[in-house]
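B., you asked whether I could sanity-check this one before it goes into the benchmark set. Here's the sequence:
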Amino acid sequence: MLGEFWPRNAFLKYPGEITVVIGPALDPAQFRGPEALMREAEDWIEARQREIGGVGPFAHPDEKRARLADSAAA
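And here's what the prediction gave me:
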């Protein structure tokens, strides 16, 4: 999902609407070490990417299909 409008190592950039999501604060004291904290943050980020991805010109075809199917069902 990353690089749907600005692909990696590409000179050209494409316009589009971005979605910024700010997640809940994570208290490190609630996790058993930095690995658990990082895993929680990564899981949250990946879940949000699945929710907001699939709209850019360089989105993965599977992501675009899923986005179109979701919008058609709504």
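One thing to flag: Residues 1-74 form one domain. Otherwise nothing jumped out at me.
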